[in-house]
């Protein structure tokens, strides 16, 4: 027997001998599902779900009208659920560039609100890139309440873009989780793209093509977060590095090692070995991304699942520690990562004035 992908399936779990007429079909299916997972071994979640469907059907065949008990798997989503959203990270405070902003623009501003290119702010540039991927109402800007006036000024021409205001800065982890809550509640089967708002890219169209490819891979491989890896120009110690594994015949590269902000010696080794820079531009199915973050920051995910108003969200933020997506999640999740190299497009994380000056002089 083969599944819809042509792969050989194991024999469906047979109804348990412990089942009795007095037990409900749902309870009996629960026992069968437990058996499926006990026998999982090295099967993918997709194969397990296929076996689960067969096991559940074996129970339901003799129970007329019970088909509603059979849940739809995440691989057979309704078209309205299989949607694409972009989360724009704009909650940083950019303290290292405040002096540079004052010198250039006459006031201290977080870097994402500065028009370093002389045309528009970095946040607006990021929204332009996001709009190449999704409609405006599928863009969620994750920002800080204290920056509300700056955000609204930048988004004056983007009325449909959603603003997700965080009560405090708790680093990139909560910056992703809070808008992810909104996405999952609206479209549980959605795919999300994360775009930081403090990046320079030389070719927005090329970037959107690679991101689109990453989103397609995330749609078909539900167990991996697909990251864009930039081609390094130096042994940078302020970036994260990804050491790639053997690609084989896969359309992406696995990650053998992930190191955020390495020592100078480590960075030199990474550079010479052909490792890539972590851009934190990623694509993933929404629920698997939440689950991956829950493994590393369960205090946050557990708390956010229970909040239903701004007061509760503020309490969670004020009472929980910061956590960083790259350092606290990706660095310890290599087996769940896939990488696409960002070729044909220069990239830089504008975290220092020197980096901005160098990039602009080249441009």
CATH homology-level superfamily of the largest domain = Spore Coat Polysaccharide Biosynthesis Protein SpsA, Chain A
CATH architecture of the largest domain: Alpha-Beta Complex
Radius of gyration: 23 Å
Q: Residue share in helices?
A: 25-40%
Distance between the termini: 58 Å
Helix run count? 13
Number of strand elements: 11
Mind telling me the CATH class of the largest domain? Alpha Beta
Helix/sheet category: alpha/beta
Number of domains: 2
Q: Outline, from the CA principal axes?
A: globular
Task: Describe the secondary structure blueprint for this structure.
Blueprint: H1 25-38, H2 45-60, E1 84-89, H3 98-105, H4 122-131, E2 139-144, H5 148-154, E3 162-166, H6 172-186, E4 191-196, E5 199-201, H7 204-220, E6 225-230, E7 240-244, E8 253-260, H8 264-273, E9 276-285, H9 286-296, H10 298-304, H11 310-319, H12 325-329, E10 337-342, E11 347-349, H13 353-362
Parallel strand pairs: 1-2, 1-4, 2-3, 6-10
Antiparallel strand pairs: 4-9, 5-11, 6-9, 7-8, 7-9, 8-10
Helix pairs in contact: 1-2, 6-9, 9-10
Commentary on this structure:
The protein has 363 residues and is an alpha/beta fold. The chain contains 13 helices and 11 strands. It has 2 domains: 1-76, no CATH class; 84-362, Spore Coat Polysaccharide Biosynthesis Protein SpsA, Chain A (Alpha-Beta Complex). The chain has a 5-stranded mixed barrel. A hairpin with an 8-residue loop joins strand 7 and strand 8. Helix 6 (172-186) runs antiparallel to helix 9 and helix 9 crosses helix 10. The protein is globular and about 70 Å long. Mean pLDDT is 84; it is low at 1-22 and 59-80.
């Amino acid at each position: 027997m083969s599944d819809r992908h042509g792969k050989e399936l194991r024999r469906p779990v047979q109804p348990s001998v412990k089942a009795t007429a007095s037990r409900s079909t749902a309870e009996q299916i629960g026992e069968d599902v437990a058996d499926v997972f006990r026998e999982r071994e090295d099967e993918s979640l997709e194969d397990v779900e296929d076996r689960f469907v067969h096991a559940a059907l074996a129970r339901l065949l003799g129970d007329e009208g019970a088909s509603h008990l059979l849940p739809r798997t995440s691989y057979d989503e309704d078209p309205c659920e299989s949607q694409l959203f972009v989360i724009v990270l704009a909650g940083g405070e950019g303290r290292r560039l405040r002096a540079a902003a004052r010198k250039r623009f006459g006031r201290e501003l977080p870097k994402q609100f500065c028009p370093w290119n002389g045309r528009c702010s970095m946040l607006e540039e990021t929204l332009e890139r996001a709009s190449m991927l999704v409609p405006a109402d599928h863009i969620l800007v994750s920002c800080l309440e204290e920056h509300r006036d700056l955000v609204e000024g930048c988004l004056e021409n983007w009325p449909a873009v959603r603003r997700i205001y965080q009560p405090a800065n708790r680093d990139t982890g909560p910056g992703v989780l809070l808008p992810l809550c909104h996405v999952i509640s609206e479209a549980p089967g959605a795919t999300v793209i994360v775009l930081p708002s403090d990046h320079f890219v030389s070719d927005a169209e090329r970037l959107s093509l690679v991101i689109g490819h990453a989103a397609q891979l995330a749609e078909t491989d539900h167990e991996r977060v697909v990251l864009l890896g930039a081609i390094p120009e130096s042994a940078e110690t302020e970036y994260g590095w990804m050491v790639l594994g053997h690609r084989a015949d896969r359309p992406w590269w696995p990650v053998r090692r992930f190191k955020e902000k390495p020592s100078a010696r480590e960075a030199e080794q990474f550079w010479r070995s052909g490792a890539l820079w972590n851009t934190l531009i990623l694509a993933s199915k929404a629920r698997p991304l939440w689950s991956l973050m829950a493994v590393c920051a369960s205090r946050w995910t557990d708390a956010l699942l229970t909040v239903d108003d701004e007061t509760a969200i503020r309490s969670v933020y004020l009472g929980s520690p910061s956590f960083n997506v790259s350092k606290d999640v990706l660095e310890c999740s290599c087996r769940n990562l896939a990488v696409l190299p960002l070729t044909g497009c220069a990239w830089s994380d504008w975290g220092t004035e020197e980096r901005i000056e160098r990039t602009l002089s080249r441009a």
